[in-house]
Structure formats: structure tokens, C-alpha cells
Amino acid sequence: MRFLYCGDVMGRSGRKAILEQIPQLRETLGLDFVIVNGENSAHGFGITRKICDAFYDVGVDVITTGNHAWDQREVMNFIDDEPRLLRPLNYPEGTPGRGFHVYEMKDNRRFFVAQVMGRLFMDPLDDPFTMLSAVLDKHVLGRDVHGALVDIHAEATSEKMAMGQYLDGRVSLVAGTHSHIPTADAQILPNGTAYQTDVGMCGDYDSVIGMEKSVPIERFTKKISGRLTPAEGPATLCAVFVETDDETGLAKMVSPVRLGGRLIEITPTL
Amino acid sequence: MRFLYCGDVMGRSGRKAILEQIPQLRETLGLDFVIVNGENSAHGFGITRKICDAFYDVGVDVITTGNHAWDQREVMNFIDDEPRLLRPLNYPEGTPGRGFHVYEMKDNRRFFVAQVMGRLFMDPLDDPFTMLSAVLDKHVLGRDVHGALVDIHAEATSEKMAMGQYLDGRVSLVAGTHSHIPTADAQILPNGTAYQTDVGMCGDYDSVIGMEKSVPIERFTKKISGRLTPAEGPATLCAVFVETDDETGLAKMVSPVRLGGRLIEITPTL
Amino acid sequence: MRFLYCGDVMGRSGRKAILEQIPQLRETLGLDFVIVNGENSAHGFGITRKICDAFYDVGVDVITTGNHAWDQREVMNFIDDEPRLLRPLNYPEGTPGRGFHVYEMKDNRRFFVAQVMGRLFMDPLDDPFTMLSAVLDKHVLGRDVHGALVDIHAEATSEKMAMGQYLDGRVSLVAGTHSHIPTADAQILPNGTAYQTDVGMCGDYDSVIGMEKSVPIERFTKKISGRLTPAEGPATLCAVFVETDDETGLAKMVSPVRLGGRLIEITPTL
Amino acid sequence: MRFLYCGDVMGRSGRKAILEQIPQLRETLGLDFVIVNGENSAHGFGITRKICDAFYDVGVDVITTGNHAWDQREVMNFIDDEPRLLRPLNYPEGTPGRGFHVYEMKDNRRFFVAQVMGRLFMDPLDDPFTMLSAVLDKHVLGRDVHGALVDIHAEATSEKMAMGQYLDGRVSLVAGTHSHIPTADAQILPNGTAYQTDVGMCGDYDSVIGMEKSVPIERFTKKISGRLTPAEGPATLCAVFVETDDETGLAKMVSPVRLGGRLIEITPTL
Ligand SMILES: [Fe+2]
Ligand SMILES: [Fe+2]
Ligand SMILES: [Fe+2]
Ligand SMILES: [Fe+2]
Ligand SMILES: [Fe+2]
Ligand SMILES: [Fe+2]
Ligand SMILES: [Fe+2]
Ligand SMILES: [Fe+2]
């Protein structure tokens, strides 16, 4: 099976990249499943139902979020009825929405997606490691599900890499999001799980992590600053591509994908 | 001019990569200047005079450090007399050592290196932005110095990228260290400064940011854990290569370098 | 000389306490100078010119602020022309307003007030210790000024107490604000500076640090919560009273003041 | 019932205060139960079995700890067999020791003690609020237990006060520790729970939170500093006294206790 995970979509520039390129990538890469992190798609802050629908229309199967999940308050009204939109698993009991789900694919295979938040340098939350481990005990790769993605939305590289190693052999891919910068460490870990510390954002890299650069620079050098708005230059679509073994669900191949914009382009050689 | 900046050297495995590969890289890449981040070279914690000397012997010109600068106390005894070993610039007045220096190259050109610490999610320190700006006012690229590297040793991608944009046009390269994971965002910014959010470590990537993986996993899941030790598998040497314009000192080309170990290899095509 | 420093005034309830009690306290305590922290006086967030004027009218001489200084944007328009309203000293160069000032009293004596922000668990800022030390070199207690208050607006008790000890002998009082809870550690340090870790707020203590309690509880237990508003019950006015030696400006006596509301009342026995 | 909770005992000076004063306080205050926070009793870092035994000998019934629980490694060897020594409840599953316990008193009444860690500005841990709530569902005050103390070992006043309000009516006393500075906000909350944001330390207040002051000052002003050691002057014993209603277990009276050393003394008027 082949699937693609696209990192934090940043505003209009990032949405444009998703809407224009996903249909073609489904073709050229022979994708069976596409997941997108949408937490910054609504002008940098959150996501709306309209954006979700636009993403589904071009072939996105599942949308993850992160700490910006609730920036657009309307999400709370529909997330309970929309299993294709995930929020972090380790939010407190009673939080709307869900943190993982098993999706039936067109060919009846099952794909598992979960998202957790890291805790280093972030808000206090329950332990994502043991929580994920308990969930995965009931969704065994190669037995209950054919493919499995875990997104760790986190600040610290140490926490993300620890999660990759902790889950190695139990899911197809552990990938990080939230830093908005793609890492160059795609690898298959010793027990067969593909891993990349951060997928990177889909957005304009002539910016400060996707935001028009003057205001963030002000924030680091002055006490008073303006409002953050997404940079509007052409986006680089940043994603991770995985091909799994049909039997085990583990990774046979992992490759970064970077298309358009300012970054050095790369696509998997199939 | 061509120069190379190698990221945090992690323990024995990382040192081996530097000692074995720098002589050859100087040749094949035609390097004029080589800088290495050595803050984790002594079994993961700090650096010793012996390690410094071994690095100089194979062609390293300057060694940077970071928050681990003082882990080996002997450093305090010799850093004042060793301009080739830098510590962060924005440490309090009275801290031993220096945070920047201008190096005379063999052909009489001058190369500027500075290191600052970021402040987001890190210890309280003085503002690295305005401090660097004041220093650079006196060391103008293309007038006073022929090449210039600024290392921002920081946790947050936003702070690193803001520094890149803030200094764009004033130095040859702004590169981050400390996260121990190379980023895939090498680019030349609009005003001619090369930039990469993190150089990545020189170390074993079957690990948690270079440490043998069992103890870091314990630290994220238990309250009591063992001692961190560097992973001992083969290192990937991670670096950033820059070729500058002889006139301006700005970047004509930037490329990541990744050699050996588990990561996808890349070297500049010259 | 006798002066009083009142802690963070929280919303309407806190303002009421100040407006009603300061005139009388000036009398009964024989106060020569009154300083109030006003950073939460405008419905919990910032301060307005109208509130400043109301405070001056009842006998407040100087108003300090803190991290909430700019919550009401109008402050930026008048703070440059209003030396009686201070913001933290260690904000970046170019920040409107001032961080310290020397006030001419009616009897021609001079009173020094400075405010700094702590850095532990707070935003990155320049070092408040060395910055204050440099300022105090030019405003020597007993020579240039007759009384001196330093407010350290900070989270960590360690940083506040270190500041007290660091400045011991150089000012009349070091007092902390920001935690909104009065501490019971008023003392005169060995070299003559009065000290209290936190003055406490002027607000309703049937609350969570002055805010109506249901929303803060939600914030600690749920992911989604409402808007913070000040609790509206009767305030306890919390302050520190100091009597100085006329010769040296050092403290002869220090006492907490707590009046009204739910806390155990205390006033200095003169 | 009357009980006393003494805050963080700091090194030799703090131990001396406990050993000398507890026997007498049991008498004069007519105490039925005494709890002491011992996390800093072993030269500032952790506690030993020998210190525990010395405390039991003078009439301490239960010892709580905090983030310094494991500083003396020997604790791990005996804490599982010593219910009188508690560690924070919200440590990960598998951590040695226990976070709460019900103690049989000499007169067969039962006393409940629990300790949790806060999460603001502290290490990532599971939610102390919901965890305590679940425990208290099984230990109902006035039905299952006659008295109940919850210690919230935390940095932020907001988190401590939110815990007090959250548990109001379900325990006899919510008291904070860890800041090492007593707060002056003892009160009985609307539903009958006594509350004080921080008990304060038992230690020398001519210090920086109990440590000899020169090194902490260095830590705030320099990059390199010496080793922390407890200040050795006379301690102030800081505690909270509560008298409960025999029927309900709720508080009839709460009072701070401060004895000896530099702080203003206070004892309950009975
Ligand atoms: Fe994001
Ligand atoms: Fe995020
Ligand atoms: Fe490092
Ligand atoms: Fe580092
Ligand atoms: Fe405040
Ligand atoms: Fe504040
Ligand atoms: Fe403590
Ligand atoms: Fe503690």
C-alpha cells in the first residue's frame, strides 16, 4: 500500500498547493491513502468545514490537526460527527472529536490514523506514549489494520524521535508535525516503522515558519508587535511518502516529498 | 569561497565521522574553511582540549559549542586563550571565552564566525538579535570580512528562521544547531544569505537524538531512569556546504551534506 | 519616610478597594508616598488613562504594571508623556514608556521607583539584575534619593528572593508582584532592605488569582474553556508598608497590610 | 480534630526546627495528626530513611515529598514498604511508592493524605485534578475518612488555587508546597475546605528559598556557578494548622504557624 502524509497546510498558499497537487500525486505516486495536517489552513489558525470539504474533494482521506485545532470555533460543532477530522488523542476526557480512527478503504483494507500532542515545551497533557500503546494493543498492524500512521505534533525532536523508537514495529509510519520545517531524517527504523521527525509545512518558506516575516521578527526583538498573517508566496508542498509491505503493514520504503516553492525538490523514485 | 559547517558531533561515533571524513571532504569539495559544532563530542557532554586538537589536526578551523559548552569543566581553563573555540555570544558579561571571532585564512582572507543561543524554551539570556546586529555593524561582509557564519543554537524553528531572515544579506550563512536533526530547508534567502534551520548532528540516527534509545524512552514514560550515553552505531555526518561570491561574500550555492549511517545521503553537485 | 506599595489591582473589585481605602490609609499610616500595581485594573487586563487618573485623584503617586502593561492599547499613546506610569525596565530598547523614574515629593525629597520582569517561566528578556545594578549606580540611596522601591514582577520565588538579596542595602524595599497571592515573609534583609516575595493582589480571593473561578478550573481540566473575567466579590487590599530611616533611606520597619475581603487582616502597629 | 502540615524542611536547619518543635506543638496545639514535607531535608535534596525515622520519633505521622523525592536514591529501596512516606500521585504507572494513603489514627479515626504535582512550569505529568477526583470518590470525607489533606506541590499560584477551589468541600485542607515561601492567604473556602497557596519552608529565610544566597545569585547573573547548599542560619518553622468539624471533617478554623528565625511569628489563638 502507498500513502502520503502532508504537513501543516499554511493559509491560502498552502491550500492552493494541496488542491492543485493532490489529484496528480494520487496518480503519479499510485497513492491508496492521503492524510493532511490542516491545523493552519484557515489563514494560519485552525480549519473550517468548507476547507475540509475542499480537501476531501481533491482526494484527501483524513485531516489531522494539533494545538490549533479549535482556533476556528465552528470545528466544535461538527467534529463529533466527522471521523475524517482528528484532534490530538491525549486531550482531556470530554474534549469534542476523536484522536484516532480506523478507516475503511475502497478496497476494504483498513487504515489506522492517530494523532498525539507532545508535552515538552507545550501545554500539560496526559502521557501520549502509554495512551497510544494501549490503543495500538487493540489495533494490531498486519492483523487488524493494513496500514497505520501516528502523527506526533510536538516541539522537541527528542520527544518525536523517542515516539518513533517506542512504536517501532507497531505502525507503518511515525511522523512529526508542528515545527513547520521538514527534517531530512527519513528512515526505516530497525523493526520496520518508517520515521521522519517533522513532515514540514505546506506553505511559503520565504517567511518565518509560514508567517509573513516582518511581524515574527518584531516579536523576537520588540515588546509590541502586529498581527501574524500567512506569507503569500508560492508554497512548497512537504510530505512523507510510504510504501508498505502488504503482509505486515510495515514500511518497505519511505521518502520525503517536496514540491514547488523555494526548497530543494524531491519525489520518490518508484 | 567554499566552507562547510558540521552539526553537533555526538560522542565517539560522531568524532569518528569527523576525523575520517573531513580530510577527504576538504579535497573533494575544495573547502577553504571548516567549522564544527563540538558541544556533544565528549561522550555526549561538552568537549575537551584533546578532542579540539584532534579536530584541528584533520582540518577543522573553528569549533562552536552551545548549552553544553561547560559540561567538561577543563574548557574553562583554556577557552580564554583559544580563539578557535567559541561559546555563545549572548552569555552574561564575565563568562569565559568569546562568542565571535574573525579568523585570518591562509590566503589572508578573513572569515567571521559567531554563535548565539536562542531563548524560546531555553535558559534566560540577553537578546541575541540586537547583540548580533551590533557586532555585525563592525564586521561588514564584503568590506571587512570575506565570509561569515552565524550559528543559532536554539530549540524553536520560529526563532531560528526569524534569525535567518533578520540577518539576510549581512552574513554568508545562518545555520541552526541543537535539535540534532537535519532540516531539509536549505535555501538562499532573498538578500543572499544561505540558510538551514538545523544542520543536524554527526552521530548515530538509530537513537534518540544521538543517545542510546532505551534511556530516553524511559525518560518519557517513567519517572525514574538511567544515565544517557551516546548511541554507538555508525554516524551520519551532517553538514551544510556554502559557496560564496568572492566579491560580496553572499551565498551563490547552499547544499546539505549527509554521509554515512542511516540517513539518505546527499553531497553537493559542483 | 513612610510608603505603601499595593499589589496587582484586579478589576472593579480591586479598584474599589484602592479608591475607598487609599485616602484613609494615607492618613492613618502617615504615608508620604503610595505606589500601586495597576496591570490588571481594567477588567483584569491592563490599565486605561481613566483608571490612572482615578488612582492619582485618591492619592496614588506612581503606578507600576507588568506583563499586562499593553493589554489596553491606548496605554501606548500616553505612556511616553506620563512618568507616573511605569512599565518593566528590561523590555527591549524602543519599547514605549520607562522602567524607572525619580519622583520629586512635595517636601522636595526624591523617591526612586523601578520595575523589572523576572525571566524564569516568563518571556525572554534582558537580564534584570545587571540592568538594575547599573541604574542604581546612578541613583544611590541616601545620597541621590531618599527612598527607593524595586518591584520584581516575576513567577519564581527563587528569582524574586535572589533579587532581594542582590539589591540588599541599595534600596528601601524589594517587593514582588504577579503571583497575585501575598506572601508572609516580610523581613528586613541583613543590609537594611525591606523585602516581601509577593505583595499579593487587591482583589477578591474567592477566585483563582482574582478571576471568577469556574473558567480557570475548566482551563486546568478541559481543553476548551470560556473567557476569563474578574471575580466580583469584595476585595482584600494587599500591600507592603515600609518606614525608612531618614538618613540612609534603608528600612526601619516593614509590615504587610491586608484589609477587607476574605484574608486575615493585618495593619502595621505604629 | 486538629492537624498540622509543615512545609518543605530544608537541610539541617529545617530538620532542627522539626525535631525541636514538633513535640511541643503536639502538646500546645493539641494536635491529632502531623504531616511534614521532607523533600529537601537531606542537605536540600531528597530524604533518607534515617531522617524519616527521626521525624517519626518526634511525632510526625506522615511525610510528603515532591519533585525532589528521588534525589537520595535509597528512597526507592524502601518507599514501597513505607506507607508513611508519600510521593506525588500523578507520577507514571510503575513509579515506586504511593501518592495517597488512609492512616488509622490511635483513636481509630481515619486520616487521608494525598500529594500531587502541578504541571504549569513543571515536568509533564498526568492530570492531577481528575486523578484526585477519582481517588476522592472512594474516600469521602465525613463518611470514609475523618480528616483529609491534599498537598499540591506546584509552581504556579493559579494551579494551586484552582485545585483548592476544585476540591472545595471534599477535603479538610488543600495546601501548596514547593515555592518555599509561605503565603498569607489562609482561608476557609465557601464549601468548607481550608486553603493556603503555599505552606512555606522550614528553613533559614536569610537565603534564596533556603539555599545559601551567593550561589543562587550567581545563577541568575552568570553562566557558570557553584553548588547549591542549604543556608545554615536558624529556621522559621512554617506550617498550616487546621481544626475540623468532627461530624463533617470540614474546616472550622485554619491558621498559619510561623515560629523562629526571621519571619513574623504567628500561632493560632485557640
Ligand atoms: Fe502547525
Ligand atoms: Fe502546531
Ligand atoms: Fe547538541
Ligand atoms: Fe545544544
Ligand atoms: Fe497581575
Ligand atoms: Fe503579571
Ligand atoms: Fe521543596
Ligand atoms: Fe519541590
Automatic annotation (TrEMBL), chains A, B, C, D:
Taxonomy, superkingdom: Bacteria
List of residues binding Fe cation 2: E39, N67, H153, H178
Entry binding sites for Fe cation 1: D8, E39, N40, H180
Keyword Repressor carried by entry: no
Pfam families per UniProt: YmdB (PF13277)
Active site per the UniProt annotation: H68
Molecular function GO labels: 2',3'-cyclic-nucleotide 3'-phosphodiesterase activity; metal ion binding
Key words, A-Z: Metal-binding
Protein name in the entry: Metallophosphoesterase
UniProt source species: Terasakiella brassicae
